[in-house]
Amino acid sequence: LYIRAIGLHQRSEYAEECRVVEEVIESYLQAEEDCKILCEDFSPQRIWTRDFPAVARDHLVSALKCKSQCASQLSYFNGRRYQNFFASLYQHLQFCYYHSQNLPKACEANQSFLLLVPDDADMWHNQAFYAQLPNVEEAWFKARKEVVEYLERQQREQDLLRRLELRINERPAPGEVSTTESPPRRNVTVVEDERSLNGSRFVAEGFLTEDQCNSLVELAAEVAVAGDGYDGKQSPHSRFETFNGITLGSIAVLTRKGVVDDGLARLLLDTSEQARNYVEAYFALRSRLHFSYTHLVCRTAMTVEKEGPRNDMSHAVHADNCLLQPNGDCIKQRPAPIWRDYSAVLYLNDDFKG
User: Fold this and answer.
1) What is the pTM of this model?
2) Which of 49, 62, 79, 179 is deepest in the core (most CB within 10 A)?
3) What sequence ranges are listed for the domain Leprecan-like alpha-helical (predicted)?
4) Strand 80-81 and strand 189-192: pairing?
């Protein structure tokens, strides 16, 4: 069905394309439901105890982890994996409905896509385009019911998995004194704390020497990939800058191939670990922090001709683990990385404002 929809799109048969894409969405949701049902029979590879509650819990954790892979499995066909496949169906819908002169449906599909992929600049641009068209109503920008229900179910499963995994990990009893020591000094100095920043944030400096910072900047310049982590979009946050990045996993591969020096790879790894340790110690956490994502990035301002003074931000103010709403609320809902509890940014240069 999907391949047929692509063919209809290429032939500009938009009305028929919309009908087929609607079938694809229905088929996809049923396939994911079938996948998750099969996960109910998924058992942990090892059972360490005969205690029934523990066995039941381990079975549920295994089933939930299995279910979390269904979307990825269903996004792979014809020898390739399609990024954000389910969301992309609504991108097709908004396009074909627009060309079929069905603006309410186009706006609905647009909002549905943005609920699934809220940081897509192109779709926000499309929404702005629709909004300025004559007779377009604000009420049309409402996500479709199946998308809302899809994300709500995903949220419930992720929340349940997180709670179960927290139960599995050993944690200090309530009231137990934390064994975490005060933040390691290592010439690190806190220059702004929660009071000055009006929130659970702080700024510290002194993690690296100037030479170490320069070494990591040079490493990023040599091996970072344009648009890494943003589907290859070179300017995902601001059209006035380019974004290059590379993950620790890619660094490890390049190190094994001899492209990256072992010492530089170790410096990056140790620096990341030092930042993690400092955050853990600063907030006197009772449990160990674990990495979710580490990214060495380089943001470079672009020279734009015929542009006056600018005050655009390199990265807009945002919440890292929830969806920030216009009224100030922040909803713990995917596709935001809701499993994150703390985020840290270690700057390697200071020739910028902010």
Assistant:
1) 0.49
2) 62
3) 2-131
4) unpaired
